[in-house]
Amino acid sequence: MEHLERCAWFLRGTLARAAVRRYLPWVLAASMLAGSVLKELSPLPESYLSNKRNVLNVYFVKMAWAWTFCLLLPFIALTNYHLTGKAGLVLRRLSTLLVGTAIWYVCTALFSNIEHYTGSCYQSPTLEGVRKEHQSKQQCHREGGFWYGFDISGHCFLLTFCALMIVEEMAVLHEVKTDRSHHLHTAITTLVIALGFLTFIWVLMFLCTAVYFHDLSQKVFGTLFGLLGWYGTYGCWYLKSFSPGLPPQSSSLKQDSYKK
Hints:
Blueprint: H1 2-15, H2 18-41, H3 55-59, H4 64-84, H5 87-117, E1 120-122, H6 137-142, E2 146-148, H7 154-169, H8 185-212, H9 216-236, H10 250-259
Antiparallel strand pairs: 1-2
C-alpha cells in the first residue's frame, strides 16, 4: 500500500498541475508534427508498437473512450460529492461524460463518412486496379479488396481528447484532501493511479501513431478535432452557467458556501 500511496502522491503533484493542463495540448500538437516529419524523412525501424495488433492498441486504444468513461465516472462522482455533498451538482458534472460520448460518436461517424465518400476500392495495397463495382469499404474488404480514402486519424483525435479530458478532471485533486482513515481514501487513490496509468498509455500511443501511422494531413485533422473537442468544452462552454461546469475549485466552493 505504501508504494501505491507514493505513486498516487506523484500523480497528484504532476497531472493535477495547472502547467500540465496549459502545455499538454501544445506538447501533443508539437509531438504529432515532429513524429510525422520523422516518419517521412527518417522512418524508425519496425517494432512491437508499430504492429497494429500489439496489446496496447487492441485492448486499450481500440476502446479508448470506454476506458476513459468507465474510470472518470466513479472519479468524478466520488471527488465531486466529497467536495460539495450535493447529488445534483454531481449529476451535473457527470453529464460531461455524456457530452464527451456525443463528441466521440459524431466525430468518428464524420471520419467514417469522409473516408467513404473520398475513397475507392483497389485490388492491391499499391492502389492498382480500381474495383468500381464495390462502392463501400465493407463490401470492398469482404471481397478481398483494399479501400483507400482520406482516413482522418481516429487515434490522434481520441487519444488527444481523452488525455486532455483526464487532466482537466484531475484538477479537482487540488481540493480533495483525504487521509488513510477517510472512507473514500482508498477508492480515490486507486482511481488516481488508474487514470494516471491510462493517461500515460494515451500519450505513448499518440506518439506511436505520430511516428508509425497515417499521413501528415490525416494526423493534423485528427489532432485538430481532438483539440477542438477539448477547447470547445473545457475552454469555452463549461465556463458558462448553462453547462456541466468545470471541476470544483476553491472559489466556486466558497461561493456555494456563501449562498447557503
